[in-house]
Every structure is written in C-alpha cells, then in structure tokens.
Amino acid sequence: MSATGTRRIVNIGPFHPLLEEPVGFALTVEGERVVHVDARMDYIHKGIERLAQQRTYDMIPILLERICGICSVTHSVCFCHAVEDLLGIEIPPRAKYIRTIIGELERLHSHLLWVGLAGHFIGYNTVFMWSWRYREPVCDVFEMLTGHRQNSALPMVGGVRRDIPERYLPDARKALDTLDGKVRMLTDAVMDDPVLAARLAGVGVLTPQQVVDYGVVGPTARASGVDTDVRRDDPYAAYDELDWNVITRTGGDVFQKAVVRLLELTESIRILRQALDRLPAGEINLGLQHVPRGEGIGRYEAPRGEDIHYVRSNGTNMPERLKVRAPSFTNIASFKASCLGAQIADVTITLAACDPCYSCTERTAVVRNLDTGREESLAELVERSRAETRRLATEMGRRPDLDLPGE
Amino acid sequence: MDAGELGGRLEAAFPGRVRWTARSPKRLYATVPADALLEVFDWCRAGIAGFRLGTSTVIDLPDGVGVFHHFAINGSPLVATVKVVLPRPDPRVASLAQRVPAADWIEREMHDLLGVTFEGHPDPRRLIKAEAYFDVRPQSRDFDPAAFRADVDEELRNRASPAEGRPDASPTGKAEP
Amino acid sequence: MLTAPSIFARALRRSPWVFHVGTSGCNNCDIEIADCLTPRFDVERFGIRLVGSPRHADLMLISGPVSRACREVLQQAWLDMPRPRAAVCVGVCACSMGAYRDAYSVAGPPDTVIREVDPAAKFVYVPGCPPKPEAIIAGIVRLLGEL
Question: In this structure, is residue B70 part of a structural domain?
C-alpha cells in the first residue's frame, strides 16, 4: 500500500519486468537495518492442488508443469515419482535418462536466469545480459529435444510420453560444449572479482543450524555446508549411474550461494554429456497403470532444492489428495533469519539468494521506515543495492561489473 | 537407518501409541495420537542427525481431519510421515512451529485449507487465502469449486470496485517518466 | 480500430512504451517477455521500452489468469494508463485462463476483469504456454499496426 492508500503494482524499473508481482514481502526498517519482515502470499495462490484432485493421473503432469515457469520438469516429474512410489515401480532405463536430460537442462537455464537476476540486483548489468544471452541456447536445445522451449509435456507416470529425436543430439552436444566454456569463464570472473567478494561476503548468512531449523534446501542450504541433495540422497532417474558431485561450500553468505549455483552449472553440463552419450535403447514408458488405493511420496532436486509431492489414491483415476511443496516455500521463509538485522541495501540480493521461484512463492519488498515513515518500492531498494555496489567499487578503484567478452 | 528400523524404535519409545507401516525401506508412515505429536517430534529431533520437517499435508478424511507431517533426514533417502487424525468440527493439535520455524508457514497454510488450529503457533494469521474467499475451506470434501466460482463471481459483479468512481487517467497524453 | 489524435498514433507507432503486469501466472510468460529484452530479440532497438508505471505507458502487457486478490490492482493499473491505451494478453492464461479455468482463486481473464471498469478496452491476444518471444513481439507489432 502506498501512502495514499491505493495498492499499486511495483515494477522493478525499465530493465526487465520479472519482479512485477504485487506485494510479497513487507519489511520494516529502522535506520539502515531491517527490524521486521512479513510476507503475503495470497496474490498468486491458484488452488493447483484442488485442481489436480479433479484431473486424471495422466493429465496432472501437464497441469503441474504450469505451477512455475522455471520448474516445469521439476513438478511434473516429482508427481510421477510420488505415484511411482505408491505403485512401487521403476521406469525403463531410457526414460530415466530422458528425465535426467530434461531435468538438467532445466537446472542450467534456471541457474543462468538466477545469475542474471542477481547481477541485475547488484548492478552488474553485463552479467544479466550475458547470462540471459547464454540461457537462450539451453532453451533451444530443450526445444530441439522436446518440441517446446519451456513445457515439454514429456513426463508421465511410468516414464516419458515421447522419445527425444536422436538426430538433434550432435547439436545438443555442440551447444553444451560452447556453454561449458562460457560458464567456466563466468565462474572464474565471479570468483576472482574483489568487488563481488566484498559486496556479498557476510551478507544474508544462514548458519547450518538455521538451515535445518527452517528446513532450507538446495543451493541455499549447500552454501552453508549442509550436505543435502535429493539426486544423491534419494536417487532417481539416472543419477546413481553417472559420475557427478554435490556442490557444497561453507560460510552460507550470498557469495557462497552464487558460487554453488555457478559450480552446479558445470556439474549439470557434465551430467548432461554423460547422459547424452550413454542414452540406452529401449522402451520409454511402462504404460499408465491403474493406481490402487495407497499413498506415495515423491522427491526431486529442483534447481532451488528439494521438491516434495505427497499423493493419496482412493483407487479411482483421480487422486484423493495431492500435496505439493516447492522448495521456495521453505526457503523463502528463511528470509526472516537471513534478513533480520540486514542492511537495507542488502535486502534484494539476500532475497534473491534464496532463489525464489516467483510463482511457487511471492516476493517483492515494500518497506516501512520507522524513522521517515516513507515507503520504498522494490525499484528503489534495487537502486540502493546498486548504489552500495558502486560505492564499494569506487573505494576499491574498480569498475562495478564484470568484463565478459561477448561475441 | 531405514523405515522399518525407525518404525521399530518409535514403537519402543512410545509403547502402545504408535501404529506404523514401512511401505518401502525409505517410506515410513506412523500414526500417533494427537497429544503425543510434540513428544514424538522432540524425540526424533533429539535423536536423529539432520532431521528436518519437509512439509505437511492436511486432508479431509472420512473419520476426521488428517494432519500428516513429512519429515526428511539430510543425507538419507528416508521420509518419515507422522500422522494425526483430528476430530471435527474443531480440529486442533499442538503446533510444531513453536519448536522449529520450518513449521510456521505450512501450519498457517493448513489452517487456511481446512481450519485446523495449531495450538501454540506464534503467528496464526491466514497465509494463502485472499479476502475474497477466506471463509472457504478449499480442501474440504464438501467444497465445490464450480459453485464457489459462480457465487463469488456474482458477488464481485455486484460489488463496486474501488477502481470505480475514481477519475480515469487523462486522455490528453502520457505523463513524462 | 482505436481512435486517437493522429499525432499520438504516429508517436505510438514509433516508440511504444509498455507496462508489464504479471497477475498470478506461473511466470513463464513473464520470463519470455523479459527475454524480448535480451540480445537475441532486443526489442529496444524497435523503440519498445518497458516502463515502471502505467502512467507512462501506451500499452499494457498482461500475463497470467487474474487471481481474485489481483483483480482490483489490475483494474487500477488500467485506469492509471492514459489514453490511447490497449493491452496485449500474453499467454493462454491471459487469453482464457488456461490451466486455471476451474480454479477457485481466479477471478477471470484480464479482458473480462478490465472490461468491468472500461467496456471499450482493446486487446490483442497472443496464445501459447508460453508463447515464444517472437510471437509476443508479433502481437505487439500487430497492435501497433492497427492504430
């Protein structure tokens, strides 16, 4: 609510429209520090669980792709996991590899999107443009292999709905090879930049105990040294047959959260190369089965962390109950721990570091300032964040951005 | 530790109060009386490294309102679901949010969906329901979304929007940014 | 056909300023809209600019089915746009609610919601889930061509 009492949609400004959803987080600030945080979640609630309970098991993965724009493979596959858990079945090998491939492509484009967003928040505009530019080939590969840039409708209970066309695998490999070099360059540039290290070190820290108490998952947890990753802990698809590492760092600040995601990009490419090379022949689906009475739990390592679905069947062709818990629902709440006492200039980047999935949860920060009584929109908070970066960079005699060679 | 092992240990620690099933080595489902929930949670949390709340499901069952807490253990495939079934019309149970912040939002959501009261919750405000339908219980078996839509559509059509009566923007041109 | 003083119609054709409203969608359309700004599509070279307030906008880009909580906020934003004004409904949710057709928490597609306060409002529809950036740009250009 603005001072005049009218609600308004807050826009990040002329750069990009990602953050224009109505009020999510409300912060209260005293001096330069956050003293209270509140969240509002009703603007985007769409009642998806209730909708899913009126859809058949075959329709639901397609519905669930639309919970969140970035996590479409995540939710559709996690649901399949829950039902496959209930059924006690294992999907065919080729289907496992296909799910691995589309899952890691999703992780790639999600992390690149995040890197760009984080860059935008702190004023590293080259990083934003650059990472979103290199996100495009990932979407291209997704489209080549599945027919759509974002929502493939591939996952279904028992496997996948369609095969991926092998004639595009050479193009996919080529795109990954190019991306690999770019990602390593970006990672090195980030890790070598003293301004970034100074700007983000010690910001938005979550201790390991807070990670467990808040139930935080994903890169946000792993940056605090908490070793948790569903792909390894509760393996699915082809992950237990491939050679890859869970990335953890210690310190738990925003810088480490960024590093985890960057290193995971390289791991994703590694996983993808193996999966493309070792794609086995064979059937892709067990055929949709009758789902008897029972219950099942599916988990999936989304780009943002553990996704959990609980499904309960009453023996009909529609679930009696579907519960979906996206990782952001849990992670966002940890904002209270990482943001209380934070500098107002660090609020936007701290929030972004939980990698909120904007329709899994909401966020936009409007601030109540106990000293001035003035509110600050998200655009203003972002500007404060950028100003802090510029201030540090000036102090250090450096440019507040990365030098990333384009083409 | 697998599901069977944890089930056995729970049963030993709370004799006569736990009914459990291991549907697979990594999926445990245990039903406990509502008044044992907090004790069981404390016991698990004290004794199991990496024990955390994953999420919770609220469900309208024939014999009451089910609250299922799904616990995960970092580094382990095991998910342990602890269930309580609460009597209607006023389902209530101890809040886990008074123990861990991981339960905060999910208990508020469950309250929104089926009206469960979580006793001891530090901040029991509505979370996901907008004002337009805060009396409704969306996960109730009796809830008919189509009929609800029709009702609320009717109400919204008849209610003046705050946008009405407010002067429309000037037709003479756009303001300079 | 929108009626507008011809000077404004010419100005619009040159450099439309666009306000983006995401109303409780899954964000996929919002991301594809944002993609339009990135180097491959680079809509800014056509003079299309995203602005921070409806008061500065010629066109509104709307995504998502409109949740009940968003309904009045969207109506307010529309009324804040000076005329001449029009909207591009991006994605099937903004066209006809898409997957959320039966959802209890959704008020209705943007055109229905906005016509409650402005029956003469004009819309262009870009279906897709999400539509590709090329389609979104084509939708905007189509609307501009009709001015």
Answer: yes
- The owner of tokens 């929007």 is B161
| B32 within a domain of the structure (yes/no) | yes
- Element containing residue A135 per DSSP (H, E): helix A125-146
Long-range Cβ contact pairs of A3-7 (< 8 A, separation 24 or more): A3/A374, A3/A375, A6/B162, A6/C76, A7/C72, A7/C73, A7/C76
Residue matched to tokens 């209610």:
B159
Which chain A residue's Cα is nearest to C23?
A21
- Average pLDDT of the residues in C72-94: 90
Beta-carbon separation of A227 and B100 below 8 A = no
Q: What number of C-beta contacts closer than 8 Å exist between B and C?
A: 75
Q: What ipTM was predicted for this assembly?
A: 0.90
Give this prediction's pTM. Answer: 0.91
B148 and B106 housed in the same domain: no
Asked if C55 and B166 come within 8 Å (Cβ–Cβ), the reply is no
How many domains in chain B?
A: 2
| Number of helices and strands in chain C (H, E) | 6, 7
**C-alpha dihedral over A72, B101, B111, A352, to 10 degrees?**
-40
Residues B152 and B96 in one domain: no
Distance CA C26, CA A139 (A): 17
Residue type, A374: R
∠ CA B152-B158-B159 to the nearest 5 degrees?
85
Confirm or reject contact between B140 and chain A (CB < 8 A).
no
C76 and A8 within 8 Å at the Cβ level: the answer is: yes
Q: Give whole-number Cα distances, B173 to B80, C4, C9, C83, C101, in Å.
A: 62, 10, 11, 7, 36
Residue of B nearest to C82 (CA): B169
Whether C86 and chain A come into contact, CB under 8 Å, resolves to: no
- Domain of B146, in residue numbers: 130-161
Of the candidates A323, A328, A316, the one whose C-alpha atom is nearest the C-alpha of residue A296 is: A323
- Locus of tokens 């262009």: C124
A291 touches chain B (CB under 8 A): no
Is some CB atom of chain A closer than 8 A to the CB atom of C141?
no
Asked if B163 is an interface residue toward chain C (Cβ–Cβ < 8 A), one would say yes
Take residue A55 and report the two structure tokens written for it.
Answer: 């859809």
What residues of A are in contact with residue C37 (Cβ under 8 Å)? 15-16
In A147-193, where does DSSP find H-type helix? 169-192
Closest partner residue to B102 (CB to CB) among A6, A42, A214 is A214
Which positions ≥6 away from A73 have C-beta within 8 Å?
A65, A99, A102, A103, A105, A106, A152, A154, A155
The residue that leads in pLDDT, A162 or B153, is A162
Select the more confidently predicted residue: C58 or A306.
Answer: A306
CA distance A91 to chain C (A): 27
Subunit partners of chain B (3 or more CB pairs within 8 A) = A, C
CA distance C113 to A188: 49
Q: Would you say how long chain B is, in residues? A: 177
pLDDT at B171: 55
Residues B112-161 pLDDT 10s: 889 999 999 999 988 877 655 567 788 888 888 777 777 767 776 676 55
Domains and CATH numbers, chain C: 14-145 (3.40.50.12280)
Residues of B in contact with A320 (CB under 8 A): 59
Helices vs. strands in chain B: H and E counts, helices first: 4, 7
Strands B51-61 and A155-156: unpaired
Domains and CATH numbers, chain A: 25-396 (1.10.645.10)
Q: Show residues of chain C in contact with B161, CB under 8 Å.
A: 71-72, 75, 116-117
Q: Which of B54, B104, B129 sits opposite A308 (nearest CB)?
A: B54
Instruction: Establish, for the pair of chains A and B, how many residue pairs have beta carbons separated by less than 8 Å.
Output: 104
